[in-house]
Design brief:
Elements: E1 3-6, H1 13-21, E2 27-30, H2 31-37, E3 41-44, E4 47-50, H3 52-60, E5 67-70, H4 74-77, E6 85-90, H5 93-103, H6 107-119, H7 121-130, E7 135-139, H8 145-158, H9 167-173, H10 177-180
Parallel strand pairs: 1-5, 1-6, 2-5, 6-7
Antiparallel strand pairs: 3-4
Helix pairs in contact: 1-8, 5-6
Amino acid sequence: MSLVITGNPGVGKHTIADEFLKNEDYDLVDINKVAIETNHIVEGEYGTEVDVKNLKLYLKNLIKKRVLVVGHLAPYVIDKSDIDIAIILRKNPYKLVEVYEKRQYDKEKVKENLGSEILGIIAHDTMTEFGAEKTFQVDTTEKTPTRIVEQIQNVIRERNNSDDVDWLSEIKQNDDFQTFFDY
């Protein structure tokens, strides 16, 4: 089985992948690491960017029967036919902002990533690319890595247990759009 763990920066992808691999025998493919090590990086309009078109071709050869692919770029560089399940990790934006502050992201990067999480951009793109039947969301906000891995293992076994994630309604309820969006 090929498994993808994706989501916005800061939701816990690598932490959860490490925890998952403690008890599972999968080869790990870290998309960002592969992109850097194989020089699939280009200078773009907004700085250094990943050459997704060529990285997708390169990764095609790395996806085997039992592989865990980790990275926020998964829906853009992995073919639907190469994976069995995609897990989208989600995190409440009020908690996610704390992660970005610790990482010392600049203000623009914080807004961009928070907006993406609130609107569910990666979730939408993952569901569109891999299909709803292969795609499951896991809210990591108040869960331990062990609990998250247990939920992922249940998803793999039962093909359900997806969390219903809707940050936009919470932001609306709190009348907090201006905190997260420039408009």
